[in-house]
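Contributing new records

If you add data, match the layout below exactly. Sequence lines come first and carry their own label; structure lines follow with theirs. Keep one chain per record. Anything else will be rejected by the validation script.
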Amino acid sequence: MKKRLEPAKGTLYVVGTPIGNMGDLSPRAKLLLENVSYIACEDTRHSGLFLNSLGIKATLISYHQHNTKSRIPQFLNFLKEDLSIALISDAGLPLISDPGEELVFATKQKGHDVICIPGPCAATTALVSSGLPSKRFCFEGFLPTKNKERKLRLKKLSQETRTTIIYESPHRIISLLKELSDFCGKQRPIIVTRELTKLHEETIGKTIMDTLDYFETNKPIGEFTLVLGGTKQ
């Protein structure tokens, strides 16, 4: 089989980066990051430290939800000039609760290639280690913060038969669990994970009630990924 030469000219690469353990960066991803013309990232300081730790010197350009209108035309011009771009997030696979969807869409609309370099993702990592059904699942990311939209989404989740994956921050995890208890019932299966792939990786709970009991005596620390079992109705 003929091997593809990478990075290819005029190509956008969506590159998965570690969510904690640096050993999870693939050799292919590292090679791409070393050789692309530009790296688009959420936070140039954060990504700069990450790349420096790998000995990679690269030209970083910030790309986040507040500057998409100015950056997308700039990146499309780079691709038109046969330059290559790697899109990375602060951690994990871009576009999964991270910026990038608009850039990928615009790139494909202009006829340029978009290639994903697979990598870690908190959602699927938590799912496959949860013990909950994984043949059919849905991803919610962070739930809406506005009260009306949030209640509507929670009601839909209460009726969902598939396993659902949710992201939440430490200062909101307890209130989210209480909401899930109200809408889904205390005995609904749930697994809450934190520090995935890191030294202090932790898996908490079997049901919503168990998990709430745990956080009554243990302060939530770190970013959380929740795997919620579907309704049996």
